[in-house]
Amino acid sequence: MFKRNKADEMDKEIRSKSIITAHYYTQFMLIVWIIIYTVKNRTILMPMYVLLVGLLVRGASSLIFRHDFGDERWKKGLVILLSATAAVVFLFMLSFGKTKVGI
């Protein structure tokens, strides 16, 4: 039906840089959202959790790709990722009962 051309190196590079740029833009906008809500003295839980979970997903995917390529540095990164995940879960548990999730 549909013939899909194989992506050459230029297409792969463009796609990779576009994804990285979109990721940084999303992080920047979430940080701006957190700052604005902090200045207005509102709850900042939703943008903060979206930012933290996004960073955890990025770290997990990096570890998976390192493991797939045989890089041994994934073991050290796993300890850091698990510690960060535990900290996010702890923060979520502390803030869940006290305040409403603000959007």
UniProtKB/TrEMBL annotation:
Organism superkingdom: Bacteria
Keyword annotations from UniProtKB, A to Z: Membrane, Transmembrane, Transmembrane helix
Bilayer-crossing regions: 21-39, 45-65, 77-97
Protein name: Uncharacterized protein
Species annotation: Ruminococcus albus SY3
